[in-house]
Write a structure and sequence with these properties.
0% helix
């Protein structure tokens, strides 16, 4: 982690690209996660999460990158990541059991104490959320610009922390006589840059 307090934000739009200041790996939960993929690289802003076929129960994983910023003026900060996201998922079922798969991305802006800043320092965009007793599959690619924009009140000289996260979840079942379900979830994301716009009071 870099402790140079990152770029100083003057009024107007600032563009902040990699390398970023830190990486997030976790939390994770569930069996067989060591067979799956969880990687981050703050130097390029890339994140990859993959939950393949596992076992009974729920599994999830989160990962991301972040940066530390400082406002030079008091005002309202609007911070948005420009992110390329590739994603794919599937559910495979037999008989009466269902499977579940979910993927999302999130931005969180926190103050020095770790508290989420107001009025809107946290924003989540759900990429997919599916539960089915039928076979399903899908994939998609997109660039997300404004969907994750957060708005926070800043004082002059305030240091704050911005984190972009992706998360995946699966829930599967198996039974010798009543069927089975399998699910996978995969997200590859790259934070191309952040925009930060500070409007002074």
């Amino acid at each position: 982690m870099q402790w140079d307090y990152g770029p100083l934000l003057d009024p107007g739009v600032n563009w902040i690209g990699p390398p970023y200041d830190w990486e997030v790996r976790g939390p994770t939960q569930g069996e067989h996660l060591h067979f799956d993929k969880l990687s981050t690289d703050r130097q390029t802003g890339t994140i990859e999460l993959y939950l393949g076929q596992g076992s009974d129960g729920t599994r999830f994983a989160n990962a991301g990158v972040g940066l530390v910023l400082q406002s030079t003026v008091a005002g309202v900060g609007r911070i948005a990541p420009v992110v390329r996201v590739d994603r794919d998922w599937h559910i495979r079922t037999w008989a009466w059991l269902s499977g579940h798969t979910r993927g999302f991305c999130k931005q969180i802006v926190q103050d020095a104490s770790g508290a989420v800043m107001g009025p809107q320092g946290e924003r989540t965009v759900e990429l997919w959320n599916l539960t089915s007793q039928s076979d399903l599959a899908g994939e998609d690619s997109s660039t997300i610009v404004l969907d994750l924009r957060t708005t926070v009140a800043l004082s002059a000289g305030q240091v704050f922390y911005v984190t972009f996260l992706v998360g995946v979840e699966t829930d599967e079942s198996s039974g010798a006589f009543i069927g089975y379900s399998e699910a996978h979830a995969h997200i590859w994301a790259r934070v191309q840059f952040w925009t930060a716009n500070i409007a002074g009071f």
